[in-house]
């Protein structure tokens, strides 16, 4: 590994940068630091050493685990943790990547695909993710590219750094998601069919990604990907299209527009009007009038 990418270790546990900081550490004779927490997310990828990790989640049991090369740790804000150095004469190498809550939120606004690992750590208190060899080496290569960009002064540096960060997080999300949520094709088809049946049966009731996840005991992230992989749209989009289709059929049958949109879960006429016109190119009244002319 290139020596100019290596950082001198310091005990600082706060960010200087607004968005992220990344370090490659390689040390000998390092002493164990005390338990600590911070107000940002920490990705820690273990490369080499005789080291254990200790994590003390709020209102949870202490986790202590010996580390192996390729082990990924994700520590959310406010969770106490530290690495315990068993033998300081063995080289201790790792990548440490800090990312602010605000930067994470901006990523999540761009796509649900960035959410998975953060959700696992914050909601399910899972912090330890061993990578298989292929994903481990792929992740290392992407981290090295990010480090090289942070040390360069090339044109487009800031834009490239952002792309590198997105690439790393998506790579890790995909690797862990595939490992944890692998289902046989038949099981996926069965789950998807059950989801569709449940939505269609309860279309007049409040429906959300959270309620579907709770009903079927699977993660929101998995349901979102199942819909995107199968239909190319999100569960929310499917529910919206289904409701609009039922509203359209009811409207052309002569039912009151106000009664229709309220029946199928639209909060107000304005939101229904915008969604209907975007879907069909006409307002509900225009659509009803056009169909009446055609029918007559």
Brief descriptors of the model:
single chain, 296 residues, 8 strands, elongated
How does this model look, in words?
49% of the residues lie in helices and 16% in strands. It has 296 residues and is of the alpha+beta class. Strand 3 and strand 4 (63-66) form a beta hairpin. The longest helix is centred in the middle third of the chain and has 24 residues, at 157-180.
Strand and helix layout:
Elements: E1 20-27, E2 41-48, E3 51-56, E4 63-66, E5 71-75, E6 80-85, E7 92-99, H1 101-110, H2 116-123, E8 128-130, H3 133-150, H4 157-180, H5 185-201, H6 209-216, H7 220-231, H8 235-252, H9 257-263, H10 269-280, H11 284-295
Antiparallel strand pairs: 1-7, 2-5, 2-7, 3-4, 3-6, 5-8
Helix pairs in contact: 3-4, 8-10
Measured on Cα atoms, how large is the radius of gyration? Answer: 25 Å
How big a fraction of the residues is strand?
15-25%
Unreliably modeled segments: none
Largest β sheet strand count, sense and barrel closure: 5 strands, antiparallel
The span between the termini is: 77 Å
> Number of DSSP strands?
8
Strand order of the largest sheet: 1-7-2-5-8
Number of helices: 11
SSE order, as H and E?
EEEEEEEHHEHHHHHHHHH
Shape type:
elongated
| Overall pLDDT | 88
Helix content class: 40-55%
Coarse structural class: alpha+beta
């Amino acid at each position: 590994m290139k020596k100019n990418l290596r950082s001198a270790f310091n005990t600082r546990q706060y960010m200087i940068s607004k968005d992220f900081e990344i370090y490659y550490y390689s040390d000998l004779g390092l002493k164990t630091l005390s338990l600590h927490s911070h107000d940002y997310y920490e990705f820690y990828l273990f490369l080499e050493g005789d080291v254990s990790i200790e994590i003390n989640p709020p209102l949870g049991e202490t986790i202590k685990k010996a580390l192996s090369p390729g082990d990924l740790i994700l520590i959310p804000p406010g969770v106490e943790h530290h690495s315990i150095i068993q033998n300081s004469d063995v080289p201790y190498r790792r990548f440490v990547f800090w990312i602010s809550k605000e930067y994470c939120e901006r990523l999540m606004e761009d796509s649900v695909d960035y959410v998975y690992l953060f959700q696992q750590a914050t909601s399910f208190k899972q912090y330890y993710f061993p990578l298989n060899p292929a994903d481990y080496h792929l992740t290392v290569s992407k981290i090295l590219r990010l480090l090289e960009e942070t040390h360069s002064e090339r044109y487009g540096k800031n834009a490239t750094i952002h792309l590198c960060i997105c690439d790393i997080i998506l790579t890790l999300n995909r690797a862990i998601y595939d490992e944890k949520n692998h289902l046989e094709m038949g099981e996926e088809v069965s789950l998807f069919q059950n989801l569709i049946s449940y939505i269609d049966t309860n279309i007049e009731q409040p429906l959300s990604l959270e309620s579907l996840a709770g009903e079927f005991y699977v993660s929101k992230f998995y349901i979102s990907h199942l819909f995107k992989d199968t239909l190319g749209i999100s569960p929310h989009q499917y529910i919206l299209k289904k409701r609009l289709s039922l509203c359209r059929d009811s409207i052309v049958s002569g039912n009151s527009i106000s009664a229709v949109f309220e029946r199928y879960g639209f909060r107000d006429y304005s939101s229904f009007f915008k969604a209907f016109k975007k879907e069909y190119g006409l307002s509900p009244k225009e659509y009803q009038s056009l169909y009446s002319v055609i029918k007559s």
